[in-house]
Amino acid sequence: MSSKNLDVLVCAFGKEVHEGLTSFPKYLSSKFFYDELGDKLFQQIMDLPEYYLTNAEYDIFQLHKTDILKSFDADKEGFDLVELGAGDGKKTKVLLRELLKEEHPVTYHPIDISKHAIDGLVENLNQELSKLDVEGQIGEYFEVLDRLKHISDRKKVIMVLGSNIGNLLHPRAIQFLKKLNTVMHSDDLIFMGFDQKKHPQKVLDAYNDKSGVTAAFNKNVLARINKELGGNFDLEAFIHWEVYDPESGTAKSYLVSTKKQTVDIDCLSIQVHFEAWESIHTEISQKYDDDTVKWLAKESGLEISESFTDENKYYKNYVFKK
Ligand code: AVI
């Protein structure tokens, strides 16, 4: 094996692709959907008529902004609003505008792994909400949260929107909440969005849109393997497939091979064999109900103090305290 091959194997992407495609059944992590093209496709998904999640959470912010801010129970000292995975900040701006209107002393700390996203958001906020105190942070959630642990003596509200927690199976969601718990002081809060169980067809449609954007998003992981790991996946020889189990509330995405085929991945020095109709599991998008969220909170040493939903009850934002 050449040293280049070794480098690729030890990089996280190469290592996990190797692991997932040599396992049975095959799997790849949805975190690998996101490169420049993947980010663009996800932006398009959020604008799709079928993808109700974004609008539902936006509506919650519009409908309940005053009560949401009340639930943060910040005193005259104000607070630090930390957002993990801030993206374009569209929903958060509704709260930020309200905070400025009410003259709440607040510092907004958007955190994202993408420098591009943070630079763009900070610039945009400086223009649109020039009075707002913004401290953008680039990095992995927990590394930045560790840094933020001691930013001030003020209360901290940690926000995680977009049902991002839904991409984690319950044990990993608990790990995530527990980790958040460890960086919280006694009166700090978490404000987190959870997509709710609903008519199964509504869920299926959200992850299987007519225009095929979600299919392209799912297949982007194969495109990345081709580009970054020297793969030769034929994207046309795989179909995007979505299933939803209304009992567990788990939506699962797959890529299914439409024929018997062998794919070379040069940088990993492997050949991956697919039987006709063999699948690669690529994503879970968990849907919740109050009991499940209550259970997650309890397992993580947290308690729900309030929750807010949209008119259709598609989505809920919960406030957690220690
Ligand atoms: C980012 N995440 C919460 C999205 C979801 O709903 O699971 C990603 C996504 N996958 C397909 N469509 C959107």
Automatic annotation (TrEMBL):
KW Metal-binding (keyword) present: no
Classification via InterPro entries: EgtD_Methyltrsf_superfamily, MeTrfase_dom, MeTrfase_EgtD-like, SAM-dependent_MTases_sf
Keywords, ordered alphabetically: Methyltransferase, Transferase
Name of the protein: Dimethylhistidine N-methyltransferase
GO BP annotations, alphabetical order: methylation
One Gene Ontology MF term: methyltransferase activity
Pfam families from the UniProt entry: Methyltransf_33
Keyword 4Fe-4S: no
Database matches in SUPFAM superfamilies: S-adenosyl-L-methionine-dependent methyltransferases
Boundaries of every Histidine-specific methyltransferase SAM-dependent domain copy: 14-321
